Amino acid sequence: MTESILPHKAKVKGCMPMKTWGMIGLLFLFPLNEAQAGYGSAEAVMFLGGMSTAGVTTTTAGCVLTTFGSTPGAAWFAAALVIGGGVTITATTGRYHKELVTLLKVDHDTYLAGGEITPFLQGVYREVRTRSHELQLKDGPCVGGEIDELKMTEAIDKLVALAGNP
Amino acid sequence: MLAAGLVLSAFFAGPAHGGRPDSLFQDAWGRLPPKVRQVLTDSLTGKPIVSFAVDRDGARLPEAKQFCDVPEEKRGLVLARFEPSLLGRGGKVVLNADLPSHYAPESPAKEPMSCRHGSLHFEALASVLHELAHAYEREASRRGGAPTFPVPSADERYLRLVDIVPGWIWPTSKNTHPLRSPDPYEVRSGAESFAVNFEYFLLDTTYACRRPSQAAYFSKAFAFDPFPQRTCRVNTQVYATGGGGVLRQDLDPARLYRVDYLMATPGTSFISRWGHSMMRLVMCAPARFDSATKSIIPATPMGPACDDDTYWHVVVSYRADVRGIEPGLLSIVKDRFPSRLFLMTFDEIFREYLHGELRSLAAYPIALDPQQKELLLHRILESHWGYEGDYHFLSGNCATETRDLLASVLEPKQSSILPTISPSGVQEDWVGEGWVDTLPKKTYASLLPVLKRIWNDQTIVTGPHLASDGAAQSGLVEYMRDSKAKDRMDVLQEKLPCTLDRNASIRDFIVLEAQVLRLQEQRLMDEIFSRGREKAPQLFRQLSVAMQARADRNKAGAYGIPLKDEILNDSESMAGNERFRKALEALKKPLEEELSEPIHEIEATRQNLQKAFVLQRKVREGDPAK
After folding, report:
1. Of A122, A100, A125, which is closest to residue A31 (Cα–Cα)?
2. Between chain A's N and C termini, which has fewer beta carbons within 10 Å?
3. Cα separations in angstroms, B484 against A41, B118, B526, B603
4. Which of A6-15, B177-186, B407-416, B556-565 has the lowest mean pLDDT?
5. Integer distance in angstroms from the first to the last C-alpha of chain B?
6. N- to C-terminal Cα separation, chain A
7. Phi-psi region of B619 (alpha: psi -120 to 50; beta: other; left: phi over 0)
8. What percent of chain B shows pLDDT beyond 90?
9. Mean pLDDT value across residues A120-146
10. DSSP strand E in B145-265: where?
């Protein structure tokens, strides 16, 4: 049986070293404005991939995951979002987190409704697939390469809730 | 006969030392590639066939400090000229009389300049090399030219590298407003382009990193590398436009898996009637998970997995900046707009076309070997940083620009009297050349069919149901444009009790609502630009300046592809974004009252989306109240 890669109470242990995260993350600047991105405020915001710039002072990626709330599954998924989107969310306020999650949510619903997968969403899926191998989840080691769409949907719903929606 | 004021001198009249014309010539002569010296030497006597003179009647040279302050066209200064012999070979290089006195090999940086060659010493040397380049081309042509004695200004391949194309009468440069040019004189003609670039090729150790394609051409043509020990590298870091801002990307040739010709289907506006031509750089992600070793490894070796790294793909798109202007038919025919090569994330292009304009994309892989891929990347970088032409919708458009860009890398075998000017025409030409296949490798469908399906499902319940495809489409467009957020939410609330799959109904509502929001925001932005241009011209100008600065991302003062320390760092880039944001806000402010209705509707649409998210979650969780 294929185990879920996004269990409700997953515990993230496997962390990519900060150096690697920084290498990937520092490649990106990802500003959004309402005119062109279509979501959120008009502020053109630059997200730097370096974790320290996001107000997160931890040394490993896994620790970053826990900043997204008490639901580790969703938090882990948020990290995939960070990597897939090449952005670091300003976890301290959650403000841009909300914009990105909205973007992800709409992209995912559009995809499920029959639209093409956006590069942003594809990036997230890609990270979910590739990183699932190294994530030791509480329910057991996950099996990579497969994405359980229901769990993906569930995780996005949780992210939406965590992003500040009632 | 000698012109008045000229003092003729023999070549190499004495030992080289500062301040003397003969030593200046000797130094310049010694820097020439052996092949050029060979052409400029009398084979019988072994002496140069070029003499030199100083023009004592010429204008005085400004001081180094002022040299760069005076615009080129107002300087009215001829530093040197080449006078070919009317009777036979060779000719005479005539120098401004002030120039030799600034030649100072013992302290070449003594009179620094903030432009061109950096000091008057090198300016003097460059002037001589420039004229010797002209002398060489004349003599090489007399000797039969290529392949033994290449004449760059007569070589189509070189001309394509420097954006010079055949004109009605003679070849002309498309780069009408060159950016980061070492000397704008270079765009005058093929001969001047060669002479200017030859100066830098021989004098600047970083030339091969700033203009790699021309440096490679010269090195090959003359079998000569003036600085084999150079330490610089071509800076492949760029800022690609994405998400309304920029994304720093590394266009490392080692990570370039493939290049696609990317074609957008025609749009509905005048300017998009023919579709759009672009190129997509299929860049591999910088790292990926390796299931064999269970570790993160660099993206090489590359392979088909890079096709899925779409987030890292970069699109190369020549565009006219017509924001806030909807060109009419007459304008399309007669007006010119600035044309620049923009680098954009594929995510941005995807959203712009598939979602924003409801147009599809087709990707045709271009057959390139690794060296051609690297050369194309260099050409893209050179154009991105240095090119600004005139976007003319009927002759200098995205299709012709993209065609010319690839032709500077792959030499076309066929040439037609009537050049192709449409995106599909370019694709057909390239099929003929064997560069792309007839069918695309991948197509990306617009969101329109999905939206039409959602609209049809909705109208079955709410009516009026429009059976024909055309009617459904126009009904959809009207609905997205004119409906109110509150009414749309009411429709959902009415529909939900009657539907079997409430989750899918809410999902469809979210997709449609997101599309409405996109259109509303685009319309608002267009309104801000067009009204702002008219009612707040000063603020509009400030915004234009901020946009330009945001697009440039480089520091002033150098030429060609910026070296790593010449592009903005991340915090400087962020400051540029901030200036743009403030300028946009400032333009928006005085218009808020008259645009209060669309602003209110946008906010209401956002609220609809958030409400739908909550509703959907409750439905999924089985909330009996829903």
Report:
1. A100
2. N
3. 21, 62, 20, 11
4. A6-15
5. 101
6. 35
7. alpha
8. 47
9. 54
10. 164-165, 172-173, 237-242, 245-250, 256-264
B361, B412, B375: which is closest to B253 by C-alpha? B375
Q: Chain B residues with CB inside 8 Å of A165's CB? A: 610, 613-614
Q: How close does chain A come to B463, measured CA to CA in Å? A: 21
Q: What is the mean pLDDT of chain A?
A: 46
Most B CBs within 10 Å, among A30, A128, A142, to test the B interface: A30
Q: Considering only CB atoms, which chain A residues are within 8 Å of B246?
A: 29, 31, 46
Q: What is the dihedral of CA B616, B621, B623, B626, to 10 degrees?
A: 20
- What distance in Å separates the CA atoms of residue B355 and residue B524, rounded to the nearest whole number? 17
CA angle B50, B54, B59 (to 5 degrees): 135
Q: Where are the alpha helices (DSSP H) in B278-356?
A: 329-334, 346-350
Best of B311, B543, B580, B619 to substitute, by most chain A Cβ atoms within 10 angstroms, is B311
**Assigned token pair, B19:** 């301040």
Amino acid, res. B420: T
- pTM of structure: 0.83
Which of B317-331, B360-374, B552-566 has the largest mean confidence? Answer: B360-374
Structure tokens at A156: 């996005």
Tokens 């996005």 correspond to A156
Strands (E), B145-201: 164-165, 172-173
Dump pLDDT digits (tens) for B275-299: 899 999 999 887 766 666 666 677 6
- Spatial neighbors of B467 by CB under 8 A, at least 6 apart, are none
- Tokens 């004229």, residue located: B131
| Angle at CA of residue B224, ends B220 and B226, nearest 5° | 125
Instruction: Please answer whether residues B376 and B368 qualify as being in contact, where contact means their C-beta atoms are separated by less than 8 angstroms.
Output: yes
Distance CA B113, CA B370 (A): 39
pLDDT: which is higher, A122 or B604: B604
Q: Does the distance separating the beta carbons of B351 and A118 come in below 8 Å?
A: yes
- H or E segment at B96? strand B91-96
Which tokens in the block code for residue B222? 């003359």
Chosen for mutation from A26, A60, A126 (greatest number of chain B CBs closer than 10 Å) is A126
Question: A82 vs chain B: nearest CA distance in angstroms?
Answer: 12
In terms of DSSP bridges, do strands B50-55 and B91-96 run parallel, antiparallel, or are they unpaired? Answer: parallel
CA–centroid distance for B150 within its chain:
29
| Six token digits for residue B279 | 């190129």
Sequence-distant (6+) residues with CB within 8 A of B340 are B179, B318, B319, B321, B387, B388, B389, B551
Please write the tens of the pLDDT for every residue from B34-90. 999 999 999 899 999 998 888 887 777 777 777 777 766 666 677 889 999 887 788
Mean pLDDT over the full length of chain B: 85
Residue B143 DSSP symbol? T
Helices (H) and strands (E) in chain A, counts: 6, 2
Q: Which residue has the tokens 């915004």?
A: B543
A53 token code pair: 């710039």
Chain B residue numbers with beta carbons less than 8 Å from the beta carbon of A45 are: 245, 577
Judge whether B223 and B217 are in contact, CB under 8 Å: no
CB atoms inside a 10 Å sphere around CB B525: 19
A66 pLDDT more than 90: no
Residue numbers in A near B609 (CB within 8 A): 102, 106
- Whether residue A121 contacts residue A107, with contact meaning beta carbons closer than 8 Å, is answered with yes
Using DSSP's 3-state secondary structure scheme, residue A65 falls into helix
In the sheet that holds B80-84, the strands lie side by side as B6-9, B50-55, B91-96, B80-84
> Are the CB atoms for A165 and B613 separated by under 8 Å?
yes
CA–CA separation, B575 and B521 (whole Å): 24
> Looking at the partner chain, which of A42, A106, A114 has a beta carbon nearest the beta carbon of B581?
A42
For A71, phi then psi, to 5°, come to -100, 95
